[in-house]
Amino acid sequence: MSGDRKTISRRRFVSGASAAAGAGLWLVGSAGCTRVRPAVRPRRISPSEKLNVAFVGVGGRGGSNLKETSDEDGVNVVALCDVDKERLDQAGKKFPDAKQYQDYRKLLDEMDKQIDAVVVSTPDHTHAVALMAAIKRGKHVYSEKPLAHSIQEIRELRKAAREHKVVTQLGNQGHSFPTIRTFCEWVWDGAIGNVHTIHAACGATNTGLAQLARVKEEQPPVPETLDWDVWLGPAQLRPYHSAYLPGRWRGWTPFGNGTIGDWVCHVVDPVFWALDLGAPTTIECHAEGYDPAKYANDVFPRGMKVRFEFPARGKRGPITLHWYDGFEKIPRPEGLDPNREVPGTGAVVLGDKGGITYGSHGASGVRLFPDEKMKAYKQPEQKIPRVKNHHADWLRAIRSGQKAGSDFDYGGPLTEIALLGIIAMRMMDKKLEWDSEKMRFTNSAEANAFLNPPYRKGWTL
Questions:
Q1: Which residues have C-beta within 8 Å of that of residue 278, sequence separation ≥ 6?
Q2: Tell me: the pLDDT tens digits for 196-216?
Q3: Please, are residues 379 and 218 in contact by the beta-carbon 8 Å criterion?
Q4: Which of 99, 114, 259, 345 could link 325 by a cystine bridge, Cβ 3.0 to 4.6 Å?
């Protein structure tokens, strides 16, 4: 099967919950009959019904997800949750009928029967625990990217979502833009021939390096409006500091996934889809001036380069993906016209018959080079249906019992690319050999320890 047909087949919408989902199973063993409780299934929702949605995290990206979801027809905002009471109160002004909570566990316990779906927009390290709690109650879930903070969490979330037959969506909004579909169609049309190399980047810098001294020297009080214990969630106990939040947690390894974790799900998404990349077999990282033995338990570097090798798949050959972030930039490719800039956040995709550039989210600057190739190119027929937007796609899938475009079985492996890069950062300049099927590095027991970091006592997935 060709690469494009494989991709379309994998992403084709499929039917929803089985009619037999509610049936209990009986197992007979030496101790007699033992009842196995069936997985909780989501209730069926008719097209005329409103979806009752709860929002965990309502500041920053959470505020955007709240607005974009609630703007869609047929959505009833029934609950708001945020560890920061000030942000919670602010969001509550727009939704006065929604119940308010600072702890998502209390929300789910008290409103279990009233909720159909949950949107999780917390810091990365608490995505998995909040998502899993909702999935196990049979709630459809939307997760801000990246999906989780460890590869083990991703694997368990995917398994639970399939078991409970919930509709999932990763919040890489560009996946629903028309331009990412245009990019895929160009690649499948052979516009640049056989793709062999990808250079992807984000110019942002997410690091707490400049704040390390403050964190060690200062002991500010926890704000009265903040539930610090719930904010920490499964992360190991440490004192509160304003250097972590709001928003700055991305640069701290116990909480965030750095620039690579924040942006791979956007920038690599187009090539991941178009080329059916799958999992890499080797990963190697270099970060100038960064000592992982000194910093990796706390902060990310100011910039890094990661090289991923993907094996041949279907009719395409092997592919090398280079990732750059912070001060590391994509090198100018041969054949790019002098008047064209190299994307600061975006990608350069190289084939044996030319190249394509695109910007952030694959949403801008999708263009062939050299320029004469772009001018002469005849657009292919559309192969992928266009959708309204990312949140609407998720809501549509819930009502139809189909899959959303970037469900966890797509968004999970995409997120794993970023997390593998972070583990390579911890193993600086060592080429790691990855066996995705067995979920292990074959040449580094030390690297394997980062696949499933321990939770703080009292927290489980």
A1: 310, 311, 313, 413, 436
A2: 999 999 999 999 999 999 999
A3: no
A4: 259
